[in-house]
Amino acid sequence: MTETPVYPEKLTIEPLVRSPDTTITVPGSKSITNRALIMAALAEGRSVLLNALESEDTEVMVESLRRLGVGVHAEGNRFVVEGTGGQIAPGPKELFVANSGTSMRFLTALCALGVGRYRLDGVERMRQRPQGDLLAALQQMGINAYSERGNDSPPLIVEANGVLAGGRVKMNAEASSQFLTALLMVAPYALKDITVDVTGALRPFYVELTCRMAAQWGVTIDAEPDKQRFYVRHGQRYKPQQAYYVEPDASGASYFFAAAALTGGQVCVAGLKSDALQGDVRFATEVLAAMGCAVEERAEGLCVQGPPPGLLRGVVRDMSAISDTALTLAAIAPFANSPTTVSNIAHSRYQECDRIHAVCTELSKLGVRVDEHFDGYTIWPAEKILPGEIETYRDHRVAMSFALIGLRVPGIVIRDPACVAKTFPNYWQCLEQLYT
Ligand SMILES: O=C(O)C1=C[C@@H](OP(=O)(O)O)[C@@H](O)[C@H](O)C1
Ligand SMILES: C=C(OP(=O)(O)O)C(=O)O
Q1: Rounded distance from Cα 337 to ligand 1 centre (Å)
Q2: 166 touches 234 (CB < 8 A)
């Protein structure tokens, strides 16, 4: 894989002197790359992924798959995967996934197809992130899956006996929709058909992404219209793909669209379509459009034109389905001419950091009025935003979002800029292109 650039401890963002008018190429989607890696691993034979994301979150997935006996050869963003048809190397095996939620959840379910003992661990923050409802679902299917410390967080142990029973399972996926994705992806390899009854609220777009991708790879996942029940026939098999193209990362694209919104400029993201598989494309097509931006799909990609100065409107939105972009929205909200309220993202307090608290703390530091709610925030238009040093809490999205404020306000300094390596190692180079 390519080397991550070396960054200083702090990065000062220079304000733009004129509005951008440019096209940016963002890397491939994390969500799609890590799903495609699992589906390719489960398929029998060679698959080739094109425009795959090369970042920490996909590297830990690739390394873990290798430990499970799946050959993965990465040449830049072209990944060649030698699928083993659902056979994974017997335990004992130790997997380390740093702070990649998708890797932790998807691999936990994959290990349930193995034989023996698998131990999955991550960095300190990963040891605080919730996994209990995924473990509970696997237990219902005859797998001895548990948290080593008894706190529903990693390290996780999966003791498997080569048989995932299948049958009827109840699952709560409120803490993370990734639990359901993880289970659905391995479901065709169970002994019996699987019916999942979803209890509690489900953030649907990531699960829809899973279902749409499974269909591309030859597996049907049926869902009731209300998305409270999913059904997977056992015995289906993923078909290896000769050239599976990974869409540009829509969450990563949100920063560049937001830059256009902030500056009255125009930014296109190459290759992204308004009907992308990824729900986060709605940040542009719905949220920015509601704030007064013009959003248009063109031959070169999806393009956002920001409104003239002073005309960006605040929005009141349930951001639960696209919560990774709630931080992007928080960064541009102080520049709007009315307050912005984000609701229903309580789960994001258990992601890379407590994202609600981080947003509120860092915006307050810059003199922005913000009210913290248990499930979101209200951000008020700011007459003046102060310079300041942003704590990024090892959260790539805090770093990428707050850098946007620096495009308008002098003296914004981002601590630990290297944390973007989780999903977007060349973020700062892409950001620089806005100055050209
Ligand atoms: O399935 C996925 O690819 C993802 C689901 C979401 O997680 P949660 O459902 O845990 O919020 C999102 O935040 C994450 O970045 C990627
Ligand atoms: C929440 C995120 O990632 P994950 O859950 O995959 O670690 C993210 O990328 O914002």
Answers
A1: 31
A2: yes
How far apart are the CA of 206 and the centre of ligand 1, in A? 7
Q: Give 24's strand partners.
A: 269
Query: In sequence order, which residues have a C-beta less than 8 Å from that of residue 286 and are 6 or more positions away?
Result: none
- Our answer on whether the CB atom of 351 is closer than 6 Å to any ligand 2 atom is yes
397 is in an annotated binding site: yes
DSSP 28: B
Average pLDDT, the chain: 97
User: Alpha helices of 284-325 — where are they, by DSSP H?
Assistant: 289-290
Q: Compute how many other C-beta atoms are within 10 angstroms of the C-beta atom of residue 393.
A: 20
The residue whose CA is least distant from atom 10 of ligand 2 is 324
Ligand number, closest to the Cα atom of 206: 1
pLDDT over 70 for what percent of the chain? Answer: 99
Residue in 324, 371, 375, 395 annotated catalytic: 324
Looking at ligand 2, which residue's alpha carbon is closest to its atom 6? 101
End-to-end alpha carbon distance in the chain: 28
What's the rounded Cα separation, in Å, for the pair 354 and 368?
19
Q: Whose CA is nearest to atom 3 of ligand 2?
A: 101
- The confidence score (pLDDT) of residue 7 equals 84
- Give distance in angstroms: CA of 249 to centre of ligand 1: 13
Q: Which atom belonging to ligand 2 lies closest to the Cα atom of 34? A: 6
Dihedral class, residue 211 (left if φ above 0, else alpha if ψ from -120 to 50, else beta): alpha
pLDDT digits (tens, 9 = 90+) for 350-362: 999 999 999 999 9
177 CA to middle of ligand 1, Å? 6
d(CA 373, CA 344): 10
Residue 45 makes CB contacts below 8 A (sequence gap 6+) with: 82, 83, 85, 240
Do strands 244-245 and 44-50 pair parallel, antiparallel, or not at all (unpaired)? parallel
ipTM of the complex: 0.99
Q: Which domains, from first to last, does the chain contain?
A: 10-26+248-435 (3.65.10.10), 30-245 (3.65.10.10)
Active site residue 324: yes
C-beta 397 within 6 A of ligand 2: yes
Helices (H), 26-89: 30-42, 56-67
411 conformational bin, left if phi > 0, alpha if psi -120 to 50, beta if neither:
left
Tell the residue number behind the tokens 């229903």, with chain if given: 344
Amino acid at 276: A
Cβ atoms of 238 and 42 within 8 Å: the answer is yes
